[in-house]
Write a structure and sequence with these properties.
Blueprint: E1 3-11, H1 18-31, E2 36-44, H2 51-61, E3 65-70, H3 76-86, E4 91-94, H4 106-114, E5 120-125, H5 133-149, E6 158-165, H6 166-174, H7 182-188, E7 193-198, H8 212-226, H9 229-259, H10 267-300, E8 307-310
Parallel strand pairs: 1-2, 1-4, 2-3, 5-7
Antiparallel strand pairs: 3-8, 4-6, 5-6
Helix pairs in contact: 5-8, 9-10
The protein binds uridine-5'-diphosphate (UDP) and magnesium ion.
Length: 319
């Protein structure tokens, strides 16, 4: 039986890369034509350049092309979610528009799923060449820490590029949280995943959309969404300071009883203690604030994205 493969492609200002992308995946699709049909689901994440025009012309040339265009930039996570909600395929893959996720891996990923032993084939970069050193360093730190403190298995170097069985995609769509962190969600839903390593590829054209700051905020999302450990740390700091305060009180009382005298000096140590404890309290409040703000956004239940234009007649217009 021939399978339908949906490729979900989030695009944000990708007018330079897209003209390379479609011919490349079409070639792979032609090679696999005996085994699978394809659907190309482009999600224009509120681009301000000519991305939408490029997608419109793609749709005219090729009837496999579907596009969803957002009313503004909602972020790659929202774009992937929109793609998953609207993908019709038996198998669904997410792919960057810049060809950093080599389409040439698709046949191999497809065969692994057809084998029946796996529900998902994910990719992992074995090198980070072509990336700034400082960015690699922070990325490594992030993976080390999050794997310690989180229950979702988050693999270092994992790309979002993966091919999944329908059942896994349905599980991901069912996780309708607003603060999405896909690397965590993929791990959290479970299923049997095969990891395919490959060498890092540089983007064909255009610029990366991720500034260091944007990545940093994304990493905080990762922590807050997939671990309660920072909250626990805040509680334990509270316990530690309470115990310390009892010890200090005992020390002062005993000193007074045994040695008498007044204890007026110690101004310097008092100031140090007050500022230190004040700082720790603010940090703990900040941690609670992070969780609270995520909860607040979640409770409001706003849509994940808003569509402005699409050529898919039965698209979920708002989700
Ligand atoms: N992207 C998106 N919305 C955003 C930022 C990025 O849809 O707000 C898309 C982008 O068009 C690309 C993919 O996400 O297809 C990965 O982005 P990029 O290549 O800039 O990231 P990098 O590969 O440098 O980590
Ligand atoms: Mg890229």
């Amino acid at each position: 039986m021939k399978r339908l493969i949906s490729l979900v492609i989030p695009c944000y200002n990708e007018q330079e890369a897209l003209p390379y992308f479609l011919p490349e995946v079409s070639k792979v699709a032609a090679d696999m034509a005996d085994r699978a049909d394809f659907e190309f689901l482009f999600v224009d994440d509120g681009s301000s350049d000519g991305t939408l025009q490029v997608l419109r012309s793609f749709a005219q040339q090729d009837e496999r092309v579907k596009y969803l265009s957002f009313s503004r930039n909602f972020g790659k996570e929202a774009a992937m979610y929109a793609g998953f909600c609207n993908a019709k395929g038996d198998y669904v893959a997410v792919m960057d528009a810049d060809l950093q996720d080599p389409p040439a891996l698709l046949p191999q990923m497809f065969e692994l799923l057809e084998g029946g032993d796996y529900d998902s084939v994910a990719t992992r970069r074995v090198t980070r060449s072509g990336e700034p050193k400082i960015r690699s360093f922070f990325a490594r730190m992030f993976y080390k820490i999050i794997n310690r403190i989180s229950d979702a298995d988050i693999v270092d170097g994992a790309r979002d590029f993966r091919l999944m069985r329908r059942s896994m995609v349905d599980a991901i769509v069912a996780m309708s949280e607003r603060n999405r962190f896909s690397k965590g969600i993929f791990g959290w839903v479970g299923f049997r995943t095969y990891w395919l390593p490959y060498e890092n590829v540089e983007r064909v054209a255009g610029q990366t959309k991720w500034s260091f700051w944007k990545l940093f905020r994304y990493s905080i999302d990762g922590f807050v969404n997939f671990s309660q450990t920072p909250l626990n740390i805040a509680s334990w700091i509270g316990v530690l300071f309470s115990v310390l305060s009892v010890l200090v009180v005992l020390f002062i009382v005993i000193r007074k009883l045994c040695f008498g005298g007044s204890s007026v000096d110690g101004w310097a140590s008092l100031v140090c203690l007050i500022t230190f404890i004040g700082g720790v309290q603010m940090v703990c409040l900040g941690i609670i604030g992070q969780y609270l703000s995520k909860t607040y956004l979640e409770v409001k239940g706003r849509p994940h994205y808003i569509l402005r234009e699409t050529n898919a007649s039965d698209a979920d217009l708002v989700r």
